Amino acid sequence: MMSIAAARALRGGMSCFVGIGLPSTAANLARRTHAPDLVLIYESGCLGAKPDRLPLSIGDGVLAETADAVVSVPEVFNYWLQPGRIDVGFLGAAQLDRFGNINTTVIGSDYADPAVRLPGAGGAPEIATSCREVFVVVRQSRRTFVEQVDFVTSVGHGRGPGDRARLGLPGAGPVLVITDLGVFRPDPDTRELTLTELHPGVELDQVRAATGWELAVAADLARTPAPTDQELIALRALTKAGS
User: What SS3 state is found at 77?
Assistant: First the structure.
């Protein structure tokens, strides 16, 4: 459901900065269904890639073979990402707080001696800063949805309204958080993540139990529509071809 919900949020004509895993699955699914002119940009420098299967890595040859252009990694960041030319960037998180701030650096209060040292930032801070919109895709539990992240790797909405502008961050930040339980969007006034959709078969109490803060719920809480036959057929074909 996560990849299908993420795919549905992508629109034709968008440029989408994707990595391997669920973001790549979602973007390629969108291209195969409702958004055939979605422009996929991979961090490796492949612009407008059109793979016929899910790539095994950002260095998979199928991306370069099907791309409109292949440029260097510094050019992707310096010319495409940082000037705000990319519409949507996907991010994951080890920890995420109510304002969409992301931690992928350390678990624990002592940076020099953490309980867990995570993979780190990579290009995530630039994506969080400069993409016009950010979609976060993460499995939800109290370990990931925390009251306050232990380390801010990538700024979401800071501590609330106006923080992105105060910090000089040009992009809109996280506009959508998709989990295995539902869909969250920032409240337009408070910027706090608010549950707006429940996935099929999920109950509200499950989401509350998996959230490390007092959950904000939209007054018009909706159900994510079940996957269509077309989406399932396209998704299965993608995953089979990439296996």
Answer: helix
Identity of residue 100: G
* 95, 71 contact by CB (below 8 A): no
Q: Are 119 and 94 in contact (CB under 8 A)?
A: no
Each residue of 180-222: pLDDT tens digit?
999 999 999 999 999 999 999 999 999 999 999 999 999 999 9
Q: What is the CA radius of gyration of the chain?
A: 18
pLDDT single digits (tens) 75-92: 999 999 999 999 999 999
User: Do 17 and 135 touch, CB atoms closer than 8 A?
Assistant: no
Task: Reply yes or no on whether 147 is catalytic.
Answer: no
For the chain, the first-to-last Cα distance in angstroms comes to 19
pTM of this prediction exceeds 0.70? yes
- Name the active-site residue from 43, 126, 192, 197: 43
In single-letter form, the type of residue at position 162 comes to G
Query: How many helices (H) and strands (E) would you count in the chain?
Result: 8, 14
